[in-house]
Write a structure and sequence with these properties.
CATH architecture of the largest domain: 2-Layer Sandwich
CATH class of the largest domain: Alpha Beta
Shape: globular
Radius of gyration: 25 Å
Oligomer: single chain
Number of domains: 2
Helix content: 40-55%
Number of strands: 11
Largest sheet: 8 strands, mixed
Structural class: alpha+beta
Strand content: 15-25%
Distance between the termini: 18 Å
């Protein structure tokens, strides 16, 4: 089975590498982009396949030496090391070829909302917005603000693989710290929720205009005062699902409506994915879109400068760096955990 898998990886990587240098493919933007994504996905697996071939050759060479002199300890040690390396590479190859989430290449829409903790929860939502925005910039993605106000932040992250990175941020983020308004120095616990939605296109989600109730009103600022003299704010209600999306940041009613429709499509698309995932495997409930966002996924403890991700039991004592957008270690651990889960599911465990 591994021999067959290695051969498939080598053949496919050779094919994709050829496409990357084919003038006909280079001249076609869509084909070249698809070839580039396939190359990036296969590059690591191709490297592992090459290492596996070398380890197999090393084992065969050590066996030949042992046949010539069974008492020589050096080839015996070489054979043992080669076989151990082969086993390790076989596990890594299986993980590398686990089927990816079909939404991984999509842009993503994030909605951050203050939860329990009153005003402090709203401030914490703002901190999370800055953390995730900086992380997006660190990863080379483009950020597009969609809406902000009253402790809620909505923004899009654009770029190949955005969802594959940010889907692990969906859930309840808990903070333990002394609020600036706390005179007695007592530690408060507050929360904010992050909803992560793969952005849908019109071809993905067919929204019947007859299912929509669209209301327009004047946008408001702090304290409820009107900040616009025209009815530019838009609220869209999707009657079949009961989903409601409001946008008021733009001065144009049309722009607010377009933004609201993008968020609505993303929510409907994520809901459809959740239903599909639930029907395929119950053990996928820990993933974004599973309906388990209310569960605490991560704790940020300011007193101990500690960040703990409860899903993979990973703790880092670099709180300041994490809040500055250094989340790579958590993303890598969560990606590895997801691959293992998918591998178990594919193997029928």
């Amino acid at each position: 089975m591994i021999e067959q898998l290695v051969a498939q990886i080598e053949a496919r990587f050779s094919e994709v590498s050829g496409q990357m240098s084919d003038p006909a493919v280079i001249g076609d933007r869509d084909r070249y982009a698809a070839a580039g994504r396939a190359f990036a996905e296969l590059e690591a697996a191709a490297g592992l396949a090459e290492q596996w071939r070398r380890a197999v050759d090393d084992a065969a060479g050590a066996l030949e030496l042992l046949e010539e002199d069974a008492e020589d300890p050096e080839p015996r040690e070489l054979l043992s090391a080669a076989r151990q390396r082969i086993e390790e590479l076989e596990d890594e190859l299986r993980l590398a070829m686990v089927q990816r989430d079909p939404s991984d290449d999509r842009n993503v829409i994030l909605e951050i909302q203050g939860g329990a903790g009153g005003d402090e929860a709203g401030l914490w939502a703002g901190d999370l917005y800055r953390m995730l925005s900086r992380y997006a910039e660190h990863r080379g993605f483009v950020i597009e603000p969609l809406g902000a106000g009253e402790g809620k932040f909505t923004f899009a992250v654009k770029g190949d693989g955005a969802y594959s990175v940010f889907k692990y941020e969906g859930g309840t983020h808990r903070v333990q710290r002394v609020p600036a308004t706390e005179s007695a120095g007592r530690i408060h616990t507050s929360t904010a929720t992050v909803a992560v939605l793969p952005e849908a296109q019109e071809v993905d989600i067919d929204v019947d205009p007859n299912d929509l109730q669209i209301d327009v009103y004047r946008s408001s600022g702090p304290g409820g005062q009107s900040v616009n003299t025209t009815d530019s704010a838009v609220r869209i209600t999707h009657r079949p699902s009961g989903l409601v999306v409001s946008m008021q940041d733009e001065k144009s009613q049309l722009q607010n409506r377009e933004k609201a429709m993008r968020v609505l499509r993303a929510r409907l698309y994520e809901h459809a994915l959740a239903e599909q995932r639930a029907s395929q495997a119950a053990d996928r409930r820990s993933q974004v879109g599973s309906g388990e966002r209310a569960e605490k996924i991560r704790t940020y403890n300011f007193g101990e400068r500690r960040v703990t991700d409860h899903r993979v039991k990973l703790t880092a004592h670099n709180l300041v760096a994490v809040l500055a957008g250094e989340l790579d270690a958590f993303t890598a651990a969560l990606q590895a955990d997801e691959k293992r889960r998918r591998l178990e599911a594919q193997a029928g465990v």
